[in-house]
Amino acid sequence: MLLSRSYGAWLVLFLLISPAFIAPSMSQIDSHWAAKKRHMREKVRKMFYHAYENYMKHAFPHDELKPLTKSFTDSLSELGNLKLQHLPRNYNGSALTLIESLSSLVIMGNNTEFERAVTWLSENLTFNIDARINLFECNIRVLGGLISAHILATDSTNRLVQGCYKNQLLNLAEDLGRRFLPAFDTPTGLPYAWVNLKYGVMEDETPETSTSGCGSLILEMGALSRLTGDPRYESAALRALRKLWSMRSSLNLLGTTLDVTTGEWIEYSSGIGAGVDSFYEYLCKAYILFGKEDYWRMFHSAYLAVQKYFRHGPWYHEADMRTGKATYWQLTSLQAFWPGLQVLVGDIGAANSSHREFFYVWKKFGVIPERYLLDHQMLHPTEKYYPLRPELAESTFYLYQATKGRHGNLFYQFYLLRFSSTYV
Length: 424
Description:
Protein name: alpha-1,2-Mannosidase
CATH class of the largest domain: Mainly Alpha
Radius of gyration: 24 Å
Keywords: Endoplasmic reticulum, Glycoprotein, Glycosidase, Hydrolase, Signal
InterPro entries: 6hp_glycosidase-like_sf, EDEM1/2/3, Glyco_hydro_47, Seven-hairpin_glycosidases
Largest sheet: 3 strands, antiparallel
Number of helices: 15
Structural class: mainly alpha
Enzyme class: hydrolase
CATH topology of the largest domain: Glycosyltransferase
Distance between the termini: 54 Å
EC number: 3.2.1.-
Helix content: 40-55%
Oligomer: single chain
């Protein structure tokens, strides 16, 4: 129906004068958001130093702080060792939290503490220890931490005072990388999940590993090869990755667990969560970092398969790699990395859709449960805990950065504000 002439005139008048009312309100929102960001930044800084200083006071040089008892754990050697057997004698840890804090110190602008930490590590840290460690965890946390810190230390804007840095962290990283190599000495090239840093793979070591465990090593080991000029690390990780990819089903899906000696699948059910998650992440980021088309081709095929067989509306269930039929209808906290990965490949619409559902569950419980049963809309009865995983916060940050200046920007501002209220 056509508008009446008088109504049309009022509408035109409103459209002409409305910016005068809207602009100040948007300006106020932007001003409020800027102030809130400054407040959040300071809270994050205080949170970091609260954790860092208490670790240094009560747990250093052990691996992690137990905040309630003000004691420590040497998690690098205790991980997976539920009975705490065969722990190294006179072992005081590997300063794991310090290694993981190095990049944060630089981001916080504390170059003095960064330099002090680098000096201590270069003079005291050793990997010549009789300790059985998880290859995947040690790779992403220790090797990755050392390599990242080395790159920061040699960056022209963050160089250590008086040129006192002489690639000590890279030397430590190379020593650690050499101790990884025996894990890859298998008939398939797929690495054992566990390796003794001093003696290599133990005689009775289990051959069972996860898709993440043997398919998420290329970033750190590839970077180590590029920095040292020694191709062995990247070659070992790439051989394992290609072997793993060759084991995919006709649907381009991979299972969760496998045998490194036979190359046979043990668990056929798969998804984007625990046991598989970082396989997808590393394929995408390896392409971004190294630029090899092989990585993109593998990732693109795997990504399309995930969207076809795991996705159900905004959710992602698990499915049998052979048939694509759904197996478990559950959300796990590790899945929350997925929207961030979708942002990296430019699939913003899908990222927004899946992120909203994760946020819905987070808002319902105040955190992302370790396991949430989608078909029953309830927590898993035996996994009612939250191990402080960062995946949802990371995905939220990626989405905020990707939607700046767009309509969705206000949504992610709201999410970030909610996160700051929860974690502070």
